[in-house]
Amino acid sequence: MITLTLKEPPTVPLEAEALSPDTIARLTIDEVRALPVFLGKRQRRLDDFFAVDGDPGEEVEVRGDVGRVKWMGRGMTRGVLRIHGNAGMHLGSAMQGGTIEVAGDAGDWLGAEMAGGVIRVHGNAGGQAGAAYRGAMSGMRDGIILIDGAAGLEVGMRMKRGTIVVGGPVRDFAGLQMKGGTIVLRQGAELRTGAWMNRGTIVSLKPLPLLPTFTYAASYNPTFMRLYARRLAAFGCALPFDERQGTYQRYTGDAAVPGRGEILVWHPNE
Amino acid sequence: MLRITGGTVYDPANGIDGIVKDLCVADGRIVADGDLDSGVRTIDASGMVVMPGGVDVHTHVAGGALNFARGLVPENQRAARKFLHRADRRAGLGGMTPTTFATGYLYAGMGWTTVNEAAVPILSARHTHEELHDIPIVDKTTLVLMANNELVLDLLEAGEVERARHVVAWLVWAAKAFGVKAVNPGGVEAWKWGKNANTLHGPIEGYKTVTPAMIIENLATIADDLGLPHPVHLHCNNLGVPGNFETTIETMNVLQGHRAHLAHLQFHAYGGHDWSTMRSAASRVADAFNANRNLTTDAGAVLFGDAVTITADGPWQHLLYQLTGRKWGNLDVENETGCGIVPYVYKDRNIVNAVQWAVGLELLLLIDDPWRIFLTTDHPNGGCFWRYPEIIHMLMHAESRKAQVRLLPEKAQQRILLAELDREYTLSEVAIITSAGPARSLGLAHKGHLGVGADADVTIYPVKPDHGFLFSYPRYVIKGGAIVVEEGDVREVVDGRELIVRPPCDPAIEDYIRPLFEKVYTMSFANYPVEIERLRHPEVVATR
């Protein structure tokens, strides 16, 4: 395991896409120290900002508040990246495999356009988690993002496949232009959830305001929820599915596109 | 001063077809052998191919529409080739809609030294010239959009053709342009009522007597009467529509007796009745074109892959947006024209796209006179200009394109002729369609050839055993006597010139335009014309 300890938080954002197990695993510790990072437009060395200890390997631990360090774990395919503070924007962007764990909060664009792997954030996340970058056709294509706290705007925007679970409240436009995949909202969301969604599933365990372009279809307990619950249980995340506890109300939309997505709202039995 | 020795020279305008010959350059021009001192720099071009620098007769590299497109496709910019800042080079991006400086590096890096920005609204001419100034190395010309300009159309409605001619002349100079462009004559004007102009002889929306045919004929006459070096540059009605070859042939009939350039002919040579029956009508269009010796054209070829469609043809862009369901940008340029932007992907598994790909090549092969059809992709509509070498390769190697045809869906193969065409371009013909021909069509006497007095725009390609992608990486590119590309890399960045014309015009016409302008335009009249001081390196080309 290699440990990177932030010396002091940078005054302007630091871009550190080299900070990923793929890059670090094949280097010596001196090479790791010399990895390039960008402070604004200036290229600097990793050890200008981090104390580097341990043996380079597939496990990377980052200590300190790296809330201003961007692009960590970009495109990573394997290994573990563990962050013991807050993480900056674009964490795990385009990642394909491996695990990222954040003890604090994560910034915007968490796991944007990711294609595989697991991201777990114990605090809150910013906006556009698992989203498509501006203009791109699709957001996350696979993998799992678990956010224990709250999340910002446009969560899962244009996502195509994969799963996002948010434990806390979520702001507007969750699942905007969604094309597939699943978003689980444990505390519901604010306005315009699923706007322009074409396909995909949004599960809300709390009632939430729905757009008029979503139509009520049925109350039922979908069989697939049982499978989802089993999969998410592995991450310590309980998803209700039992008809003795309640039912899901299914709304289809967004008719404005028109789309065939669904929003499933959990209603526990009285 | 410079001497290029031992190269095999292809200079079709001067009848030189692969002769080993020395070239001498002084003061930015080609000079006779005796005019050089000894001890000048010599480029040993032994075993290499020497051609006049490329001339792009129809491209979109600057201005409001292109800038709008840049903003509309951030996902393309992200994937684009990056040009990092260096001491002698500005930063930029390549890709579908290259940034200004990168445009110059990319064109020059490919051996092209003159480009014609083919669609400038007068209202955004100032912006266009600012961007053109930032496109280094290449010389630039612009064409100004005229076929949906209400000042002009109102005069045609009133039968005041003489006055219309003066208005056109005034507008060309106001925009510091080089010639007149006509896009979907009448159709863009009709688009402002949500309509289009599908037939050449019906009156257009908002007018009683003005028809597309009338606009075409009058603009062609005006361009001739004004003695513009380049004739009217026409984007025909019904672009992209299945069965539009009839409109194209009818347009050729309307143009009889006039000079004209038909832009991106590929988009106007489709048969069939609808998308499910669309097929190549390249042979019909090519036959008609071959018989009309008054015309020139450019291919507007399509390459598979990403593109961004940018055109003043607003109604067509709306249709294309409905077909793709992706993004759409639409601009209304006051009383002058419109503009639409739609990102597009040409797929080889798509039958319509496969037919489009074939039609561009078929026209290049079926039109018998290379002096009348030029290489373009209507950048970035059919593909990016930096992919021209791929087209040249297919034109020179029948087997390579036949191999591609065999990979297309069977249904598409039945709707095209490409597999039956065996013609292969010679190097001399390549020099004609990429340089000598377009220079002649644009009326640029100093471009497109290597005779004494010509601009010293020279491209030197290393010959590879099988010709390969010979044209991708010139060994040297010389622009105005400066060696801008050496060993395949941009070494020296010089400024290009802007070539403009000042057609004869009655100065009193301004008194006619001013009150109309002040009534309907949002800007003040004094700010409308581009001052000559705005252009850093202008050069006025004489009218005919």
Verbal overview:
The complex is a heterodimer of chains A (270) and B (544). Chain A has 270 residues and is mainly beta. Chain A is 7% helix and 29% strand. Chain A contains 3 helices and 17 strands. The longest helix of chain A has 11 residues, at 223-233. Chain A is elongated and about 60 Å long. Chain B has 17 helices and 28 strands. Chain B is an alpha/beta fold and 544 residues long. In chain B, the strands form 7 sheets. Chain B has an 8-stranded parallel β-sheet. Chain B has a 7-stranded mixed β-sheet with strand order 3-2-7-23-24-25-26, with helices on one face. Chain B is globular, with a radius of gyration of 22 Å. Chain B starts with a strand and ends with a strand. In chain B, helix 6 packs across helix 8 and helix 13 (388-396) packs across helix 14. The chains are: A mainly beta (270), B alpha/beta (544).
Can you lay out the helices and strands and say which pair or pack?
The complex is a heterodimer of chains A (about 270) and B (about 550).
Chain A: E1 2-6, E2 14-15, H1 21-24, H2 29-33, E3 36-39, E4 42-45, E5 50-54, E6 59-63, E7 69-70, E8 80-83, E9 99-102, E10 118-121, E11 144-147, E12 163-166, E13 182-185, E14 201-204, E15 215-220, H3 223-233, E16 246-253, E17 261-268
Parallel strand pairs in A: 1-6, 2-7, 6-8, 8-9, 9-10, 10-11, 11-12, 12-13, 13-14, 14-17
Antiparallel strand pairs in A: 1-5, 2-3, 3-4, 15-16, 16-17
Chain B: E1 2-5, E2 8-11, E3 16-20, E4 23-26, E5 29-31, E6 41-44, E7 48-52, E8 54-59, H1 64-72, H2 74-79, E9 82-83, E10 92-93, H3 100-110, E11 112-120, H4 125-133, E12 139-145, H5 150-157, H6 161-174, E13 179-183, H7 187-191, H8 212-225, E14 232-235, H9 245-254, E15 260-262, E16 270-271, E17 279-280, H10 282-291, E18 295-298, E19 305-311, H11 314-324, E20 329-333, E21 337-346, H12 351-366, E22 373-374, H13 388-396, H14 398-406, H15 410-413, H16 427-442, E23 458-462, E24 476-479, E25 482-486, E26 489-490, E27 498-501, H17 509-520, E28 538-541
Parallel strand pairs in B: 1-6, 2-7, 8-11, 11-12, 12-13, 13-14, 14-15, 15-18, 18-22, 27-28
Antiparallel strand pairs in B: 1-4, 2-3, 4-5, 7-23, 9-10, 16-17, 19-21, 20-21, 23-24, 24-25, 25-26
Helix pairs in contact in B: 5-6, 6-8, 9-10, 10-12, 13-14
